[in-house]
Amino acid sequence: MDDRDSLTLPRIGAHRVRESWQERFADTPDVLKSSEYQQTIVPVLGLEIGGDDFVTMAGPCSVETEHQLLATAHHVRRGGARILRGGAFKPRSSPYAFQGHGLEGLKMLAKARQETGLAIVTEVMSEDDVPLVAEYADILQIGSRSMENFTLLEKAARSGRPILLKRGMMATVADLLRSAQVVLDNGNPNVILCERGIRTFDNAMRNTFDVAAIALLKLISHLPVIADPSHACGHRELVPALARIGVAAGADGLLVEVHPNPEKAWSDGEQSLDFAEFDEMMSMLEPYIALRGMVLGARPMEAVG
Ligand code: PEP
Ligand code: MN
After folding, report:
1. What is the pLDDT at residue 94?
2. Below-50 pLDDT ranges, the chain
3. Interval 73-96: pLDDT, tens
């Protein structure tokens, strides 16, 4: 028996990936489902990402102040999130914008974990920072701008921490799977894929939310898939609808930006939910999460948030 067998989750519609998909994604065989291996479950502080639980990761775009972070962490915890997000190292479009607090930000995240029990996901931008970020984070986020930084991927993979791999804004599904394959090839099976919107000709929103990619990834890959409705559209009033669509497309969880006072946020305020908006989004998601449970296991599932 292969070690992986113990992680296999039986699913309705469990299947071998059709040959045409296997051919299309022939250079990433290890990320594809097989008849023996249907689903990777990534363990994070007692949570099982990719398992029956729907996992919400929420928090500010950037770690700004201790008060901002702790207030957000306590609020999203009460609202059902199980993982706190927040950038200490920020990849910004402008070189003059706030670049993050670095180590001080990581320390604030660790304090928030200690106070709330939430696991921490935070971005690592440079291979030099991998040991430091891995010391503080439960999940290493590889940002869109870094998805094809293969030396970073290798170093992050070797840290042994689970990897949240965000799709590059100009990356195809095949490109995303290739980067996931690199992490697997470096001895780390715990990869979580994240659809966060891609660039298309349309410029009404920040990006175009590729929900078909979520459905496709769930069909062909055994890796958990997370939807990021915040970066996908860039406008807070659209985030709850995109979150519901992400769940309906089969996502295993959400990554969503929340801030105590979005108007004053140091980054991505326009797309960040305030506390009341987060609560409303979560309550509107409940029936969709329950439905997801019925589709996956033919029984109602307990929503973890
Ligand atoms: C983020 O999660 O704040 C972020 C910078 O995301 P992305 O890499 O998808 O732009
Ligand atoms: Mn952001």
Report:
1. 87
2. 1-10, 12, 297-305
3. 999 999 999 999 999 999 888 889
- Which atom of ligand 1 sits closest to the CA of residue 146? 8
196 touches ligand 1 (CB under 6 Å)? yes
pTM of the model: 0.92
d(CA 61, CA 71): 14
Return the closest-CA partner of residue 268 out of 165, 197, 170. Answer: 197
CA-proximal residue: ligand 1, atom 3 (nearest): 61
Kindly give the distance from the C-alpha atom of residue 237 to the centroid of ligand 1, in angstroms, as a whole number. 19
Residue 295's pLDDT is what?
65
**Which ligand has its closest atom nearest to the C-alpha of 271?**
2
pLDDT digits (tens, 9 = 90+) for 37-60: 999 999 999 999 999 999 999 999
Closest ligand 1 atom, CA of 62? 3
Radius of gyration from C-alpha coordinates of the chain: 18
Best mutation site among 147, 231, 239 for ligand 1, i.e. most ligand atoms within 8 A of its Cβ?
231
Closest atom, ligand 1, to C-alpha of 194: 9
Report the pLDDT value the prediction gives residue 93, as an integer from 0 to 100: 80
Q: Whose CA is nearest to atom 1 of ligand 1?
A: 61
